């Protein structure tokens, strides 16, 4: 069976998670002076070893997909670099201004990433300037989004390339929307790492609750790093942002301030109790139930960690075919859906039959949202032939291939593929449909 190319490394994921786990263990014993510095500590616990491994061992900076040329380095062009720095500075200020004016998130949450920026600015500013100078000399095509945006701001280009500008603005809209709130979530979870360690000695249910909190911190740290590190040096730049309206709709409804549906506010899928309140009532189920919860969340974190420095919603930053993605195209959504069912467990936690039925139906609505996200992602990524090859191969290799044969709408079809009435069997590599 042909091995598929991937931009990710299993070792990167393992090294990052081990170092981050050690950092979390340290913070569980020795709390930070404040939550913001504690969150930044974990960010660096993950970022530094992963970045070093990617550069020193994998030599990812020499990958052709970075768009960098390390053999023929052009002469420095200070004017072009200054234009790019103008573009970079302007887009940062624009993101801050938009949040300040429109108050997309609550002020108390926006204060947290702003405090982090204040701490990092003296350290990061010289690194950012040096990065632009170094990378500009090595880019095969130095005319990138920062350059185009800077020229447009300075009114030096009467005929801007609007396709580059569009992708640049969309990419920063994604980054500017998600990065602040993800860092805020990470910061808000920091105190619990130390304060709730007593749960580890309060029985298995409480211990699982603490472990899930720790896994939340792992996942959020990787996500924060992913949104922040959209840089070519690590082959983590945005190849293309998802410009499909449907993709934005099904994604944004899962996050603040639009998450009334996905959080269960409109269609409550959680009852007045959760799994931890009733686990003791089902002693035969308790241990396998808790094991499944940890498995689901562990799979969720693994599906995030395999991205290394590349995790992000609504972007194409390289095709990943290994790790959990070797078993199914959307392991993160599978894991999230399973986790929601196991922790809400409306069929066990509801007080009335009607409550159980409505909450269960609401969970199916949430599943439908994530199915929509998966389809929208596939539609976007299918612009890359590497993803088409991967997705067609998964029609045969996925752990859900038998389910897909029973439910043909789950079968991936290549772009412009024409459906037909071929019987179920091996996958036709041209159409993405079961064939004999």
- Name the structural class: mainly alpha
- List low-pLDDT spans: 418-436
Biggest β-sheet: strands ordered side by side in the sheet: 1-2
Number of helices: 15
The profile of the biggest β sheet is:
2 strands, antiparallel
Pfam families: ICMT (PF04140)
InterPro entries: ICMT_MeTrfase (IPR007269)
Protein name: Isoprenylcysteine carboxylmethyltransferase family protein
Subcellular location: Membrane
Question: What distinguishing features does this structure have?
Answer:
436 residues; mainly alpha; two-stranded antiparallel ribbon; 15 helices; 4 strands; globular; disordered C terminus; Isoprenylcysteine carboxylmethyltransferase family protein; transmembrane helix
Summarize the structure.
The chain is mainly α.
Account of the protein in words:
The protein has one domain (10-381). It is globular, with a radius of gyration of 23 Å. With 436 residues, it is mostly helical. The protein is 62% helix and 2% strand. The strands form two sheets. Strands 1-2 form a two-stranded antiparallel ribbon. A two-stranded antiparallel ribbon has the order 3-4. It starts with 9 loop residues before the first helix and ends with a strand. InterPro entries: ICMT_MeTrfase. Pfam families: ICMT (PF04140).
